[in-house]
Amino acid sequence: MATWQLAAKARNDFADLVEGLTPDQWDHPSYCDEWTARGVLSHLTSFVETGVVGFMATMIKQRFDFNRVSVAMATQQLARPVGDVILALRTKATKSAAMPMFREEMTVTDVAIHTQDVRRPLGLTGELDPAVLSTALEFLTTHKMATMLVDRKPLDGVRLVATDRDWSFGDGAEVAGTGEALMMAMAGRPVLDELSGPGVDRWR
After folding, report:
1. Strands 168-170 vs 173-177: parallel, antiparallel or unpaired
2. Is the pLDDT of residue 2 over 60?
């Protein structure tokens, strides 16, 4: 599967996850800082609704602070009806990033993490597509652009071992867990209690 098709798969899976949320669930905090589930939807949709000119204008206005850019772009989507925002995400699911430097794998990883940011706090059932999760794990551990999404310093001196798939990375004290839990731990989410091994305390 071509990667932008995989990004579309991840985006549509996220839309499936949130489409039936209740008003209370939309306002429920996610694992992503202070964003609610609706904020996460707005964030993901903002990247299919914003072209290169709009993106660069926001970058300049926000002094090239990527986190502030993401918040500003998401805020623009919050005024729209939720149904319209979901439809936009689905309609433009195969859209590539406005900036060529943002690789396809980065989008897949961003959507994967944010899907779990919403799913986990709400206790929603379901799992990430295996190809989406594999792409995220590889991107987070091997690509230089991953530092835009996560802090890789905690990976120094540990070996990550997935317990539900044939995947590992690094050298040092072992940290074992499901691939999804390892992904979320790399993203700084509160899942370290789901991991095991002598490297967990080092990571913590």
Report:
1. unpaired
2. no
Q: Are residues 96 and 106 in contact, defined by beta-carbon separation less than 8 angstroms?
A: no
Q: What is the pLDDT of residues 27-58, one digit of tens each?
A: 999 999 879 999 999 999 988 887 665 666 66
Report the C-alpha dihedral over residues 92, 103, 37, 191, rounded to 10 degrees. 150
Task: Tell me the residue length of the chain.
Answer: 204
Euclidean distance between CA atoms 77 and 93, whole angstroms: 16
Alpha-carbon gap, residue 46 to 50, rounded angstroms: 6
22 CB neighbour count, 10 Å cutoff:
9
Full strand arrangement of the beta sheet holding 168-170 = 168-170, 158-162, 173-177
Question: Each residue of 63-110: pLDDT tens digit?
Answer: 666 677 677 667 777 888 999 999 999 999 999 876 666 789 999 999
Cβ partners under 8 Å of residue 185, min gap 6: 175, 177, 191, 192, 194, 195, 203
For 167-176, write each residue's pLDDT tens digit: 999 999 999 9
Task: Point out which residues pair with 29 in neighbouring strands.
Answer: 36
Q: Any idea which residue has 């001196």 for tokens?
A: 157
Which amino acid type is present at position 87? L
Give this prediction's pTM: 0.90
